[in-house]
C-alpha cells in the first residue's frame, strides 16, 4: 500500500481525489492498511469499520464518476472521537457503562463531516467521559505517543492526535473544555483548534448555553484544519450560541507573511502558570520566526483575573449537570477525578455560580481590551512535556506543585475561560526529540486570525513536517 498517501496533507489529497488521480477506495485502503500495521502499538483507534469505510468509499467514487455534486472533504478518511455519537457505530465515552452502546444517529459534528464527503473509518480513544488531558480508560487502555512509545499522547482527544501523527487518518475531530484539542496536538506535533464558542455548534448537548466546551477540527497542517473547519462551522437553529457566519470563508488561501502583525508573548501567562523550562526554551528559540515574517513581538499578557474562578466553578457545575446522577448511581464505575469534579459541582450555591459568571463577564471585557492593542497572544500550549502513560496526571511543573488534577492544564484552561479561539501549532522539539506546541490566541470570533498566524509560522518553521519514525 502507498504510505506516501497517508502522510500527505488533506488539502493535497482532496485535490487528487477531485482530479481523479487517486480514488477514494485507494485512499481508504491505504489508510486501513496503515491502521492494521501501526495501530496495535499506538492504541489510537479503538473501533474500526473497515467494510463500512470501503463501501462508503466505493459510493463516493461512484458519485464523482456520475458527475454528482461532491463535498469539500470528498473521499477523505476521518476518525471520530469516542465521546461523539456515531449512528450505527459503537460509542463508549471511554466508560464501561457504555461498552456496548450503539447510537441510532450521528451527532452534529459527525453528521457535518459525513455531509461534506468524509469517509468514517472508526473511533479514536479518549479518557473516560473526556475528563482529563491524558488518554487512558479501563475499556481500551492508554494511547501511546507516536514520537515516543510509552509516553502520553495527551487528551482528551489523544486518540485523534496520535492517529493523525501516525498517518492513520488525514483529518479528525475532537472537543475542548480545558485543552482537549490543543493539549494532544502539542504532545503529538499536530494542529488542534479550539474555535470560538458557537463557531462549531454542538448538538445534542446537556446545557446548550454553555461556552466552556467546544468541538473542533484536528489535522497535521493548519490548512487542513481550515479545510475541516469550513465543513464544521456554520449556524444551527437548535444551538443557542451558534454563530451565523458560514464556514466556507475559513478555507480561503492562508498568508505566508505577517507584516505589521502585533504579537504578545506570555511564556507563563503573566506569572499565573508554572511551565517546565524545557518547554519555554524550545518556544523562545522559535519566536524569531515571527519577526522574520514581519511581525512585532512584545512580552505582554492580558489581565486574566477571574479566569480560574470562572473555569473552575463553571466546569464543576457542568460536571454535576452532566455526570452527577451517573456518579451517584454507579460510583464504583466512574473514575475518581470525575467523582471529585461532580462533587464540587454539587456543593456549589446559586451565589457561587453567579459570582463565577460575573467574573467570566469581566474577564471577557479585559481580554477584548487587550486585543485592541495586539492581534495575537502567544503562549505555551502545555506546561509539561509528554509523560509516561502509567502516570494519571502530572503533579508539578517547573518545581511548583499543583493543587488538583486540573493544575497542569491551566495553560489551556485559563484561555478556555476567555472565549477566545486558540490554535496549537507545532512549536519545535526538545533536544531529545519530544514535540512542543505553541498556542496562538486571538480576539473572540477571530478564528481566521489564528489560522493565518499559525499557517505562516508553520510554513516558516516546518516543525510539523517532522514525522515520527514508525514501523
UniProtKB/TrEMBL annotation:
Q: What is its EC number?
A: 3.5.1.4
Keyword Iron set for record:
no
Question: Taxonomically, which superkingdom?
Answer: Bacteria
Which keywords has UniProt assigned to this entry?
Hydrolase
Q: Which residues form the signal peptide?
A: none
GO MF: amidase activity
SUPFAM superfamilies to which the protein is assigned, alphabetical: Amidase signature (AS) enzymes
Q: Which residues form the Amidase domain?
A: 26-451
Q: What is this protein called?
A: Amidase, Asp-tRNAAsn/Glu-tRNAGln amidotransferase A subunit
Name the source organism: Modestobacter italicus (strain DSM 44449 / CECT 9708 / BC 501)
Amino acid at each position: 500500500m502507498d504510505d506516501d498517501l497517508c502522510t500527505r496533507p488533506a488539502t493535497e489529497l482532496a485535490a487528487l481525489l477531485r482530479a481523479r488521480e487517486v480514488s477514494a477506495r485507494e485512499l481508504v485502503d491505504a489508510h486501513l492498511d496503515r491502521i492494521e500495521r501501526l495501530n496495535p502499538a499506538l492504541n489510537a483507534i479503538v473501533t474500526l469499520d473497515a467494510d463500512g469505510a470501503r463501501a462508503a468509499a466505493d459510493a463516493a467514487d461512484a458519485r464523482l464518476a456520475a458527475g454528482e455534486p461532491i463535498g469539500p472533504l470528498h473521499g477523505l478518511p476521518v476518525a471520530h472521537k469516542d465521546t461523539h455519537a456515531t449512528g450505527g457505530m459503537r460509542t463508549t465515552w471511554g466508560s464501561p457503562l457504555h461498552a456496548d452502546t450503539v447510537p441510532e444517529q450521528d451527532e452534529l459534528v459527525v453528521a457535518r463531516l459525513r455531509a461534506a464527503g468524509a469517509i468514517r473509518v472508526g473511533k479514536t480513544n479518549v479518557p473516560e467521559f473526556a475528563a482529563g488531558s491524558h488518554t487512558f480508560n479501563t475499556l481500551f487502555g492508554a494511547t501511546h505517543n507516536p514520537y515516543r512509545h510509552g509516553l502520553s499522547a495527551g487528551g482528551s482527544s489523544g486518540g485523534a492526535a496520535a492517529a493523525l501523527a501516525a498517518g492513520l487518518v488525514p483529518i479528525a475531530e475532537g472537543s475542548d473544555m480545558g485543552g482537549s484539542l490543543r493539549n494532544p496536538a502539542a504532545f503529538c506535533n499536530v494542529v488542534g483548534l479550539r474555535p470560538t464558542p458557537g463557531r462549531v455548534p454542538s448538538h445534542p448537548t446537556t446545557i446548550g448555553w454553555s461556552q466552556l466546551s467546544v468541538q473542533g477540527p484536528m489535522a497535521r497542517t493548519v490548512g487542513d484544519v481550515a479545510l475541516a473547519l469550513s465543513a464544521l462551522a456554520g449556524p444551527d437553529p437548535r444551538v443557542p450560541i451558534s454563530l451565523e457566519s458560514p464556514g466556507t470563508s475559513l478555507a480561503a488561501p492562508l498568508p505566508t507573511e505577517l507584516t505589521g502583525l502585533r504579537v504578545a508573548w506570555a511564556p507563563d501567562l503573566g506569572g499565573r502558570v508554572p511551565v517546565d523550562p524545557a518547554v519555554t526554551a524550545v518556544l523562545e528559540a522559535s519566536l524569531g520566526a515571527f519577526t522574520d515574517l514581519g511581525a512585532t513581538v512584545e512580552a505582554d499578557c492580558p489581565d486574566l483575573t477571574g479566569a480560574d474562578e470562572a473555569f473552575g466553578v463553571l466546569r464543576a457545575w457542568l460536571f454535576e449537570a452532566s455526570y452527577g446522577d451517573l456518579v451517584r448511581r454507579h460510583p464504583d464505575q466512574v473514575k475518581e477525578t470525575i467523582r471529585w469534579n461532580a462533587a464540587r459541582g454539587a456543593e456549589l450555591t446559586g451565589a457561587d455560580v453567579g459570582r463565577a459568571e460575573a467574573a467570566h463577564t469581566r474577564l471577557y471585557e479585559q481580554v477584548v481590551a487587550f486585543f485592541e492593542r495586539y492581534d495575537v497572544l502567544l503562549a505555551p500550549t502545555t506546561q509539561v512535556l509528554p509523560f509516561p502513560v502509567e502516570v494519571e496526571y502530572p503533579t508539578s511543573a517547573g518545581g511548583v506543585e499543583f493543587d488538583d488534577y486540573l493544575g497542569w492544564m491551566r495553560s489551556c484552561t485559563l484561555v478556555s475561560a476567555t472565549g477566545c479561539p486558540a490554535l496549537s501549532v507545532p512549536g519545535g522539539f526538545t533536544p531529545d526529540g519530544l514535540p512542543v506546541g505553541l498556542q496562538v490566541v486571538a480576539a473572540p470570533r477571530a478564528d481566521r486570525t489564528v489560522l493565518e498566524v499559525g499557517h505562516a509560522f508553520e510554513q516558516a518553521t516546518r516543525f510539523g513536517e517532522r514525522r515520527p519514525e514508525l514501523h
